[in-house]
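#struct-help
A.M.: can someone run this one for me? Single chain, 259 residues.
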Amino acid sequence: MGGAVEAGGCVSAPARRLAGLDPGTRLYSIGDIHGRADLLADLHARILADAASGPLDRVVVYLGDYVDRGPASRQTIELLTGSALPGFRAVHLRGNHEELMLAFIADAQDAERWLFNGGEATLKSYGVDPAQPSADGDPYRGLHRALLRRLPRSHLDFLRGLKDSHVEGGYLFAHAGLRPGLPLDRQSRRDLLWIREPFLDSLDDFGAVVVHGHTVSARPEVRSNRIGIDTGAYATGRLTCLVLEQATRRFLVTEGKPQ
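D.P.: on it. Structure tokens below:
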């Protein structure tokens, strides 16, 4: 199910620049997963098959939002911390949902925003019942203690070690996007993880084509200055991977069952 899709089949606009990668490099960038470990495993298999005849320098960039909403956040992180893609350089970016989860891990009183944005599904994946009463009458503190008891140290280290952005050739990767008018070294973490407008409608040349997730679209969006690849995997069953090699672009897309 699923397969390769050429950029011409996506929501697109005329390209202003021809970004590229060094010869001998093929890069795979995966959009927002949101607890759909089944789709991630499927996409990993497709990537391995696609890369079998490719160059030796193989890179995979994950754009963040690995947790929340979908049913298998724990299993997703387990896949990401394992060796599903041997021989690849792996770059894991931070999404706004990882930021929300880490805020709760640091302070139980930061629970409400995380739970409202899908954190209950993540708790359930770690065996924590969000409806379970707390012994001391503080429901958030009880959930906090329960999660910390069940969260593997390797998962916590993974969450804390995520990057905010990555540059490879003529592409810049960030979970949400960039603030127009600011160079990369002046971008705030909040914008890199949360921005929608004014980034999405901007015609600015950011100095590189920005590859991002965060904002859901039915199909990948290819614009002159950005490529958006969040296709709502947790609800649609479509997890999208952008494949870049020299000046070419194409897509691998799963066709799993909607949640």
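A.M.: thanks! The chain has one domain: 3-253.
D.P.: also worth noting: The CA atoms of residues 137 and 250 lie 53 Å apart.
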